Amino acid sequence: MTHEASQPQEIKGRVLDTSSLTDYQAGAVVSRALIQKPTGTVTLFSFDKGQGLSEHTAPFDALVLVLDGEAEIRISGTPHRVKAGQMIIMPAEQPHALQAVQPFKMALVMIRS
């Protein structure tokens, strides 16, 4: 089950606590867009244990910054374990999927141009 949180309050020019910008919800994925521009996006996600994103591709590289917990990210079939404090770049046009090994939070940065 995926749940998209409401649009954020004005956040520009403020110090933000990443741990409180998205909350965990039982059996769900929660997302919160911080920046949405034609040239790119920054979105925070919270995944309950066992939740994930099914395999898909994107036309642009996507940077995952792990904020909390642990997940397995598969890129072109190769698994990568990522934990808080780590990051990984998912290359454009390569199939990737994500599964939370434990409750997991990430920031997803996608630059379109």
Overview of the molecule:
This protein has 113 residues and is mainly beta. The chain has a single domain, classed as Jelly Rolls (Sandwich). Helix content is 4%, strand content 54%. The strands form two sheets. It has a six-stranded mixed β-sheet. Strands 4-9-6-7 form a four-stranded antiparallel β-sheet, with no helix packed on it. A hairpin with a 2-residue loop joins β2 and β3. The N and C termini lie far apart (31 Å). Mean pLDDT is 91; it is low at 1-8.
What's this, in brief?
This protein has 113 residues and is mainly beta. The protein is built from one helix and ten strands; from the N terminus they run βαβββββββββ.
Which terms would index this structure?
single chain, 113 residues, mainly beta, Jelly Rolls, six-stranded mixed beta sheet, four-stranded antiparallel beta sheet, 1 helix, 10 strands, 4% helix, 54% strand
